[in-house]
Amino acid sequence: MGDLLYLSVQYIRHHKLKLAVLVFAITLVGWLPIAVQIIVDQTASQLLARADSTPIVIGARGSPLELSLGSLYFSTRTPETLNYAELEKVAATGLATGIPLYYRFHSQQHPIVGTTPDYLDYRKLRISTGRPFALLGEAVIGSKVADELQLSVGDAVISSPESVFDIAGVYPLKMPVVGILEPAFSPDDNAIFVDIKTSWVIQGLGHGHQDLANKIALGQILKKDGNNLVANASVKQYNEITADNIDSFHFHGENSLRPISAIIPLTADDKATALLIGRYQQERDDVQIVRSQKVISELLDTVFTVRDYIVAGIAVVAVATAIVALLVFFLSLRLRRGERFTLARIGASREQIILLMATEVVTVILVSGALSAMLILLTHQYGMQLLQQLLLS
Amino acid sequence: MLQIHDLRFAYPDQGFALSVPELTLEAGETMALLGPSGSGKTTLLNLLAGILTPITGSIQLNGDKLSALNERQRRRHRLLNMGMIFQSFELLDYLDVRDNILLQGRLCDSRRSDANLEQQARQIAEDLGLGDKWRRNSMALSQGERQRVAVCRALLLNPGLVLADEPTGNLDPDNKITVLRKLIANCKRHRRILLTVTHDHSLLAEFDRVIDIASLVHKQSPRDG
């Protein structure tokens, strides 16, 4: 047996290129359909898990899918907004309290989520180092943000301008990192959390500047009308909220009119959820309430259909590859007819000849099977992460 | 000693039959078998090797009666007691000189563990002038060298009978005489019987006996019985 194996190894070594191509092709068609299934299933379960933990979302009229994806994954760049007053309306129903979300801004590729500390409790996000945000301008960052931007408590994140060509746009705001979250293996890992008012400061709805009542600033005042002062452009605007200037930060107008992207209503039970949905659907035309699970399930139906098409396509390729592989084996056996004849004539037994001939097929199938299994295992472990990294980069 | 007695063979559904009443070859004797194409030379060689089974008659090699063996036993008998040399060498292209020579040994359970086998193979290769080609792929050799590898393979397990089917048919004049002389010398030294089919009359002087198959056999239609 050992000598036959030795002869088989010699054959494989001599025809390594042909066999490597076969192994590669068979491995690929063995691995790909299962890998697609695994990744789609993992994506689906991740999407559904997030939707399960956030059954309903309230937002401005528009696409339910965009609202769901935005409030669950902070993925919408320019979300439709509703007024902060909606939060009080939710509370006024007596059926729920609400957590506001404002996810319009980013720092590099990471969404800045304006919310309240309740959000961290709601998502069971734990602080690994530092503390939750408490003051205006403070930020708590997800674990991936900390890893990717190499940030630790005491460092700062800067909001990215929405458009580099908008010279009248808002200044970037520098925000000190006061806490880093433990990995939650969710989109929260990739987000920067700030107080809702901080996100309004990023938008320019709140600001801090040089005290115009100060004597030094007298030359910068253009007009004085009662309590209102009109100053020229040389007044220094702060783009970082510090202990020294925090008192100068203020908002003009009513908080209730300021924008938010969505509200996560927290209901006591399913009955309250059903009642809240019913009430919003019956009484409110200006906002929408969506069931995240339903919206995500509809999205997944589309994804599953696409997956099925892909898997069907790969299955056809697999059949073609199997036919080609069979043809290669058949041709190889034909080419080795002389070898079989020689072996028989010098006295090799039928079993020895069959074993020698079968080694090629068995080796290709075993190696391809092992490689496919290994790749499937790796896909199961790291496929999702790799795909996310690829998509992000 | 090789003894053939009243050997008869016919291919089914073909108008060809072979009959050898009597033939005896002593140990160390070399014989050339002549005859035109289709006269039954290779058929006789295959009968002696046990590849074909005669209808009647007996073949005995050193006391072993081939006709009493089943196919499995005949293969084993061939592996252990016979060396086969072919016109087109029949080397395995994926093996080097060493592994081609050792092939018959690797297929043989009783000789595989023989520690001296590789040493013997090396010695035979040296004798046939292949010492410096030991690890070279057989396809990288000249025609003459390839046939010498085939001769080495046939001689490795010290067979009592060497059957060669036109072993020099693909060789140039210089090589064919060299290869044949080395083969005959080895058979003489080790008292092997060498039966060679050849068309080449220039080589006949090298053999102890030369027999035209026409004088040896009764070639007949199967209907003649």
Short description:
The complex is a heterodimer of chains A (393) and B (225). Chain A has eleven helices and 16 strands.
Chart the SSEs and their pairings.
The complex is a heterodimer of chains A (393) and B (225).
Chain A: H1 2-14, H2 16-53, E1 56-60, H3 64-73, E2 82-83, H4 85-92, E3 96-107, E4 110-115, H5 117-122, E5 127-130, E6 139-141, H6 143-149, E7 156-158, E8 174-181, E9 192-195, H7 196-203, E10 206-207, E11 221-225, E12 228-231, E13 250-251, E14 259-260, E15 262-267, H8 270-283, E16 287-291, H9 292-335, H10 337-346, H11 350-392
Parallel strand pairs in A: 4-9, 6-8
Antiparallel strand pairs in A: 1-15, 1-16, 2-14, 3-4, 3-15, 5-8, 6-9, 7-8, 10-13, 11-12
Chain B: E1 2-10, E2 17-25, E3 30-34, H1 41-49, E4 56-61, E5 64-65, H2 71-81, E6 82-85, H3 97-106, H4 109-112, H5 117-127, H6 143-155, E7 161-165, H7 173-189, E8 193-197, E9 209-212, H8 213-216
Parallel strand pairs in B: 3-8, 3-9, 6-7, 7-8
Antiparallel strand pairs in B: 1-2, 1-4, 4-5
Helix pairs in contact in B: 3-5, 3-6, 6-7
Average pLDDT taken over every residue of chain A? 86
Give, in order, the helices and strands of chain B: EEEHEEHEHHHHEHEEH
DSSP helix fraction of chain B: 25-40%
Number of helices of chain B: 8
Distance between the termini of chain B: 29 Å
In the predicted model, the low-confidence regions of chain A spanning at least 5 consecutive residues are: none
- Count of alpha and pi helical runs of chain A: 11
SS-derived structural category of chain B: alpha/beta
Largest sheet of chain B: 5 strands, parallel
Q: What is the radius of gyration of chain A computed over CA atoms, rounded to a whole number of angstroms?
A: 31 Å
- Distance from first to last alpha carbon of chain A: 52 Å
Shape of chain A: elongated
Helix content of chain A: 40-55%
The overall strand count of chain A is 16
